[in-house]
Amino acid sequence: MNAPFDPGAAGAALALPQPYLLFLGDTAEASYAKTAFGLRDWAGERCVGELALSDRTVTTGLPRLSPAEARAKGARALVIGVANEGGIIADHWVASLVEALDAGLDIVSGMHARLADIPALREAAARNGRRLIDVRTPPARLSVGTGRKRSGKRLLTVGTDCALGKKYTALAIAKAFADRGVDTDFRATGQTGIMIAGGGMPMDAVISDFEAGAAEALSPDAAPDHWDVVEGQGSLFHPAYAAVSLGLLHGSQPDVFVVCHRPGRTHIMGLADFALPSIEEVIDMTTRLGRLTNPAIRCGGIALNTASLGDAEAAEVIAEHKARLGLPAADPIRGGAAFDALIDHCLA
């Protein structure tokens, strides 16, 4: 299981109340409901249903339940399944969150906004004896990065943009490593990954001076043949989030990185004035910047999110990327021989 790391520095494993009711709010864009989808796909046995405020809201496909109905089915917590820009809790969500507390559910949130800072939630939690749990809270004691070379091996997922598959790719690679008998840990760096893994480091909530140190603490010295598969965050080319990506790159010191990309996306999500970088640019930039703390860094391959494509078109796109880049390319969720080849190259 998890290689040990100092819980005072990197956060002890969470004991979250389960099962979950997934709250979607009024989110109409699937990319902004990635917490809900991630929990459905990687911890589905812990999810009893979803709560939405509108018929136009995206859906996970789980039963739509009221908080009382979810509690009757065994739910113990409502999880805010939205990951919007800025991590805010909208004012018009509050009545539904209070309803959940009144129904006997705790609330789990990965937003930047703190649950207890909202008076109505604080009062309802106290009235019902319920908990308000913020997982996007970094530990109190973090050190700045040292750049010291650590034992063990590390793989980091990086991306051409946000919300295109870095977490799913890291989880799939960690599973594939483990299936081959490789001593492996998935290291979560975002709120959804932390909820799935039961612990991790919320990198985008760490003060910038401590980003690299937080990544070092998350992935400590390990046995020479142990692999930490580190969930990537943001993009080095994102005008808002590149600082998080860079700190994670320097602190995780990856031996191997895998570039994640969604074919068909042309601009940074939500920022139409910024064109998406090419995969070649991402490989070059990641290699040059990553050499600061690991001169031996290399690209292990390309992970393509082909969820919007049919089987034949996905296979064609994967083959085209492999031929053009001279690297293994695969959709980790589709798996198959292409993904096996990517895993072979990462472990080589």
TrEMBL record:
Residues 59-138 form the D-glutamate N-acetyltransferase-like N-terminal domain. It comes from Allosphingosinicella indica. It comes from the Bacteria. Residues 144-337 form the D-glutamate N-acetyltransferase-like C-terminal domain. Pfam families: DUF1611, DUF1611_N. This is Uncharacterized conserved protein, NAD-dependent epimerase/dehydratase family. InterPro entries: DgcN-like (IPR011669), DgcN-like_C (IPR035086), DgcN-like_N (IPR035402), P-loop_NTPase (IPR027417).
